[in-house]
Amino acid sequence: MAPSESEVERKGDSPSHALKLDELRSRLDQFRLLYASDDAATDRMLNELGGQGRVEREMLGELATARPLSRPDRMAEAHTVAMHALEVLARNGSRPPSQLRAGPFTPVARFLVQQVIRFIVRTHQNHVIDAVRDLYTRRVAWVPSGDPARITLVRARLDAERASDAYKQKPGGIPTFLVGGAAVSSIGQAVRGGVSAAAGSSAGAVVAVLVTFVLLAVSSWVILRGAAVARRRIRLTLDRPLAALWETIGWCGHPPKDPARSFALVAIALTVAGWVILPLLAIGGLALV
Known about the structure:
Radius of gyration: 28 Å
Number of strands: 0
Distance between the termini: 96 Å
Order of helices and strands: HHHHHHHHHHH
């Protein structure tokens, strides 16, 4: 005879009935205890739960976290320091480079380098304020209502939301010839166009190649200088405060990184294009003259 609905409900409500929630919490507690002390046992449990590798291990470690904040006593202070640092960067990070020297071309060089600095700094500050706000929002969603950490996180989230519009500045335009991807992809067209414009003249083709080479060299120099200055200013003002904030929150990955490294890679690509790819394309173009 099948059990009645009331009997099933009584069985589910009985203290001896094991809830899936209890089983999950027990496994996560075990994983948390083993996470920092026994790598072999941690890996075995990770395999039992269907994961493998460093990323899955870190994911399960974060999932096993029981506390909403790593240092609830310092989180408000870390938030204050990070927001102060972001304000300082937003106000000063895009200023022209003060120590750049390029002879008679210094004013032009400073202007172009400043465009790269502004783009990197503003892109990063937009990303940071979004990342901070989203982190607070995601974290407060699972903090118990009676936990004091919830009040701290709610206040910090409100601060980030109010400040968000103030940091949402357009990165600014970068001159077309500084866009590395477009420059590299159009090298061949530039060389062939120059050769065609030379109307069959080898000397004209050489001039076209030299002009393109100089353009690439200038672009690479400007991007490298701008990326270096932006990285230095971000490291000086914001890197440590963000690291401290992420540390006090805990179990939330790594702070957002600025795009200066990507710009440096673009500059390197332009240099390679100027010294390697461009001569090869020029040889091919001269062969057609």
